[in-house]
Amino acid sequence: MKKFLIGLGTLFVLLILALAIAPFLLKGKIESAVNTALDENLNADVYYDSEQFSLSFFKDFPNLTVSMGDFGVVGHAPFEQDTLAQIGEFSLSVNVGSVLSGSIALNEIILDRPDIRVKVLKDGSANYDIAKSDETAVEERPEESSGGSGASFSIDHWEIIDGKLSYDDFGSQMHLVIDGLQHQGEGDFDQDIFDLSSHTQIGEMSFAMEGTEYLHKRALEADATININLPHMKFTFKENTLRLNELALGFDGYVAMPAEDIEMDLTFASKDNSLKAVLSLIPEEFMKDLEGFKSDGEFDIHGHAKGIFNDNQMPAFGLSVNVEDGKIQYPDLPTAIRNLNMAMEIENKDGIIENTSVNIPKFHMDLGKNPIDAKLLVKDLKKYNIEGNLKGTIDLADLSDLAHQEGLTMKGIYKVDISADGYYDSLTNTIPKLDGSMSLANGYFQTADFPIPVKNVGFNAALKSPEGKMSTAFLKVNDFKMTMEKEVFDASMLIQNFNNPSWDVKAKGNIDLATMAKAFQLDSMELSGKIYADIVTKGKMSDLEAEAYDKLPTSGKVTLANLFYADADLPQGLRIANAEANFTPKTITLSGMTGKVGNSDIALNGKLKNYLAYALKDETLTGDINFTSKRFNLNQFMVEETEEEKGKAETKDPETAEGIVEIPKNINMVLNANIKETIYDEMTLTDLKGKIILKNGIASMEGVTFNTMGGQIALKGAYNSANPKNPTFDFDFDMSNIDIPQAYKSLNTVRAAAPVAQNMNGKFNTKFAMKGSLLQDMTPNFDALNGGGDIKINQASVNNSGLVQGISSISGFSSSNKTIDLKDVIMSTKIENGRVKVQPFDVQIGEYTATIQGSNGFDKSLDYKMSVVVPTGGLGDEANKVISGLLGGNTKAVPDAMRFKFDIGGNYDKPTYKLAGTESITTKTSSEKRQEDREQKKDVKDEAKKILDNLF
């Protein structure tokens, strides 16, 4: 006996060791088999922590428990960046014997901390569609198929612990989020008929569709026992309760799917639910601060569905909702909805949706002390046979209290009495016969966003369709009135023929702009003044859609008085003392507009045409406006940039830089200007007259003339902003008797193109053309500037020039005239790619004549050639001795005159120069002259340098 016990104990220990060792011996093969099965059957990347992959007989003896930790699935394109599932721990317990017998029995499946994220794209592709197709999946092994006829599957228990689920369908715009999911279930799937029991709890569930959130973090709890008949595919509800927030529903009946059709006989009903339970389901988007409500009353809902459901058929269904003695009230407010009683029946007896009827035979509630009653019957959802009425009185103060919105105040008595009887059919333009009236008395409205109250609001309105036709239906609003800060506004409106609506609207009243600024909280601007309007407009929708604006008779008058407007972009302010606009269907006539912009007076009158198309269809506004001013100061619109702003402008992307004046492309306007005095920078323009034409993004100038800089300028051309990234200009100037010093002081183009004008006196005439592009700060792009013309100088001089002193230093001629004189000079100039090119012209330097030609850039670079003829007879003895020395001491060979040639480079502030050659004015042969030039060049070079030093 002792040996037997020892042997039995030894056997037991060996069995325990075998159970402990076997999983370690099998782990590698099982893990490899799992990996192979996943790769062969899934179009996805599956990962898990191999160190958390375990096999054990002891967790659920005698069953084998397989566990995987940090288990996840990531899809392939287009979901390669999306995780479909992330599971903290996945485990299942299997009966080993059942596997050997071919009848797999799973004892338990547990998902711990699963996070499932389902996505469906607009094209219908879904990230959960990861199973390989028949073509790509591994074919079934022969031994598997041959022995599979007797295989079966069963499971005893499954559980989800602390789960999360998100479902995003971007095609249907449906989104579901579940957090805190706890679920347990059990059922013997090895039986043909068995009960499946489950318990589900959801901590928070949110659901939204097409941008509307219907559930927001609502709790759900469900207990369900369903009898499953697998041979007949019939599912019978036994004991079932679904609780969503505080609303509990019970289900009875069955659903069967013996073939393709779905058979059902279902009923559902609320279980002892109050009105408060229903209110707990109202989306927060529609009902804020729900917890603050007090609610009482009985609520009952029940429904049914019975019949066949398939692609062509629906079951019969019904829904019944009843509310009795309902009450809803905020705890701190006196106003409540009381005596809420409603009955609603939705019934469909044959599954044909058109045969559905909606019947609300009773609806009543008291809002404060005012009753509201309604009823509605809709039969036949194809032709919509409608019978109903709504009658009630609402004290808006009660409604304001009930809305419970901060800053909202409403007052007044609103009454409605409307009835409908007949058919609605859009194909035949039939509507029910309507007889309705609405009115508001002593209305008062104020909101947080509109803090200025609108008072004394009132109207009477009638909505009627006596024949039940859209063509004879009408809405008439009489005696509409409102007051805002003592300003009264009146209006009336008649809309007829709902097929092709026609309108007749009259509006008359005053608007205080200071009040509007307060009402709309326009804190960034100053606005005051009054508008008086008296407008009548009529028309038909068909004419409006056909853009037949001449058939929309609009007339009336708008008067503006004492307007003042200022903001950050217009700090100097706009003041309009008076303005009047008269309307016709085609034209707005502006007259009597006078005022000031800053310190500049303005006066406008003229006409605007096609204004309706411009306002409604963004078409072209045309007009002819006269603009006059005694003194218009443009400098008040020019703000000097700070160093910080300049730095920002230098680093700004050219394509996004601001500053370009963009002419609207849908403006076709002629502006006739007549300005007595215009101030621009340091220039004063007098008697400015001409036309400025705005069209297609281009501002053209025609016949523009003005006096400035001591003379007169005529201007024509265009500024083109059609491409705001590269605005261009093309102008012709006709300038007469322009004072040179004033031109240098006033025009940056003159300073850049002719810096020598800084030391000049005199006047000039020119006809000059200039075209190019503008930078984003509205200054010319000098590198791409082109143009040209003749500059005529009748009499001018250059003062403080070193040129005369330079010539005197080598001639010995002493002259009191130290200036350079220009008389009857014509300078032919041409601007190409940012350089001013000048053809040869002569100037008088004291007693000497100089010829100059070449070019200079807008960057002040110089490239000029100059020749000076110096008579030897007037040079003096010392100079003649020098020249004689250069000629070999032969005094008889001294010519009558010498021509000095210079190349001038560098820039205007720091020129460079060199002697290009000399030439004797004699009768000698060319060869003799060349020989003398070579001999003289070296010795004369020093003397020439002395002249240039004094010249500049």
TrEMBL record:
Residues 926-940 have a biased composition (Basic and acidic residues). InterPro entries: AsmA (IPR007844), AsmA-related (IPR052894). It comes from the Bacteria. Residues 4-205 form the AsmA domain. One of its GO terms (biological process) is regulation of protein targeting to membrane. GO terms for cellular component: plasma membrane. Residues 919-940 are annotated as: Disordered. This is AsmA domain-containing protein. It comes from Persicobacter diffluens.
